[in-house]
Amino acid sequence: MFNSPDCFAVPDNPSGLVAGDQHWGHATSKDLYYWTNHPIAISPPNNESQVFSGSAVIDTNNTSGFFPNQKNGVVAIYTLNTPTAQVQEIAYSHDGGYTFTRFAGNPVINSTSTQFRDPKVIWHEDHWVMAIAYAQDYTIGIFTSADLKTWTHASNFTRPGLPGEQYECPNLVKIPVHGSAESMYLLLISINPGAPLGGSITQYLPGVFNGTHFVPIDDVTRYTDFAKDNYAGQFFYGIPESEGAVSIAWASNWQYAQDAPTADEGWRSAMSLPRRNFLANITGAGWDLVSLPHDLSPVVGEQLAARNDLLNETLVVDYSSVASNAIYFEAHVSGVGGVSSAATLNFSASSPISGESLSGGYLFGGNNSFFLDRGGVRGFDDAFFTSSFNTTSPLRADGTWTLSGVIDRSLIEVFVDRGARSATATFYATQPLTLFAVSTAGLPKGASVSVRVYALKSTWSEDAETNVVESIVK
């Protein structure tokens, strides 16, 4: 992942629609929604190797010595996958990340292992820090460097939380704490396979980092998403702390990513919405990762519907005229403390042509369960394409609850209770979903329900090469 504020890169196979001949693709954006595709950023040195995941930094102080006359030099750190080992290399760019030169002294970290990959580099006070996965040893290594060229092993963080089959794509990021001027460190570890729902998932651990060692605050296992299609999320480097931590994830699951039925359209996988993230002590476990869409204003279009009084009623919105076939919706509920399990909010998106639908809903009483169900769409049949997901979302003490979400033509993302829980799920309908409905039932007379639905603008241009919102291959 290229982590400059307006650039993005992921492993990309330029010769196919499935993972294989991995290079580093490259795209730029001013708002994280409208992306311009550029030529391959970094290619492997020969036909027997591939450029796997990594990260990049702005070497403002020229610690590397590559940039004697500039403050914005970019250094990429990545895994070179070879037939005999995975080693760590660097490449540098004088033009903001458009073109790179491989360092003559590569590899900067040598290895005899074929399971040592995905370096994530950050700056900590007076030195560079790398978090990297010893994939099948269930270990995250921490290395330090003064110049990005010479690295020293500092510590290992071993077997936290869910081991799965292997660790990938670690992130070590400083993240704000809601309602406080303080911040904490977050270590995120992507696991594949072995997720509770099958395939891939990302877990996160809040903790303390002193520049060489990471210590989690507890042994609770926490996940970034309660559905199946949010993996290997990466945080952008260089975002001011006052703006919070911004991330983008791969919206798929390794169980079926290679088989998703989109090859006829010339793409295979998608990226999630960009998200702003912070920690908040909400549930009994404490220190929840709160994720909400990054500023949607660049893509929010006309308001399709608005109700301030949707109490035990249904709102239906026809969005068949929305060119992007994408909408954003939000619901705000108050005055619902102490209600029975019969009190619900449900929503759906459906096709009047094929009868297909996806749905979701919340029980305000009982165990406060929220569910998301993609089983009603029929464009993809795979044994591992799980239909339904759920989570618990307790009501706030003030009796309020919120829901927001984006429904695109093949992806839904929901943000429950102000982002305290989030889910990302792909779906593949045989006909476009064009009717959105939201309803409430069983709520007391004193409750209040407001709902807004907006069209989203298309981020695709007529020239498909200029946009990569759904064309990046993981």
From TrEMBL:
A Gene Ontology molecular function term of the record: sucrose alpha-glucosidase activity
UniProt keywords, alphabetically: Glycosidase, Hydrolase
Listed PANTHER family: EXOINULINASE INUD (AFU_ORTHOLOGUE AFUA_5G00480), INVERTASE-RELATED
InterPro entries xref list: ConA-like_dom_sf (IPR013320), Glyco_hydro_32 (IPR001362), Glyco_hydro_32_C (IPR013189), Glyco_hydro_32_N (IPR013148), Glyco_hydro_beta-prop_sf (IPR023296)
Gene Ontology biological process: sucrose catabolic process
Domain Glycosyl hydrolase family 32 C-terminal: 356-439
Residue ranges constituting the Glycosyl hydrolase family 32 N-terminal domain according to the UniProt record: 13-276
GO cellular component: fungal-type vacuole
CDD domains found in the cross-reference section: GH32_Inu-like (cd18622)
Listed name of the protein: Glycoside hydrolase family 32 protein
Superkingdom, taxonomy of origin: Eukaryota
Lineage per the UniProt record: Eukaryota, Fungi, Dikarya, Basidiomycota, Agaricomycotina
Pfam families: Glyco_hydro_32C, Glyco_hydro_32N
Gene3D superfamilies: Exo-inulinase, domain 1, Glycosyl hydrolase domain, family 43
Family: Belongs to the glycosyl hydrolase 32 family.
